[in-house]
Specification:
Elements lengths: L2 E2 L9 E3 L3 E3 L6 E12 L3 E11 L5 E14 L2 E12 L7 E2 L26 E4 L2 E4 L2
Antiparallel strand pairs: 1-8, 2-3, 4-5, 5-6, 6-7, 9-10
């Protein structure tokens, strides 16, 4: 997330309308704390772990539980990504992007999947329905 309050959890420079992209000394980290589950069966692997999000200055702002599951399906396999985040900062945190910071239609931020080139023309199943990759 490139604009998480005043912090950047995307990495690299931060966009502001006044200065464009500049290093601001605000790159936070998502730090692994512990493994909560590792379940393996013939058709599924599930990994869950706890992370603590810290600002570059070291302030603890978020607790996160992240679970990644791979599961065999009749015609391939599925990847399930689940996250639960709790704001522990004691303040409201506005989540945004370069667009909300003043760059019209910057078009990125959040969670991205970058699959192998061989994944081209695959099918993505999401709660909203099926989609094709390009």
């Amino acid at each position: 997330m490139p604009h998480f309050g005043h912090d950047n959890f995307w990495g690299g420079p931060t966009y502001t309308k006044e200065n464009g992209y500049k290093p601001l000394g605000n790159n936070g980290s998502q730090d692994h704390d512990r493994v909560d589950a590792l379940d393996v069966s013939d058709d599924e692997v599930r990994f869950a772990h706890h992370l603590s999000w810290h600002t570059e200055g070291g302030k603890h702002v978020v607790d996160e539980t992240r679970t990644i599951t791979t599961r065999l399906a009749d015609d391939g396999w599925m990847l399930v990504y689940e996250t639960a985040m709790t704001n522990v900062s004691g303040a409201n945190i506005q989540i945004g992007s370069p667009t909300t910071a003043g760059w019209p239609n910057a078009g990125y931020g959040g969670l991205f999947w970058r699959g192998r080139r061989a994944f081209t023309n695959g099918t993505i199943l999401a709660p909203q329905g099926k989609g094709r990759t390009s």
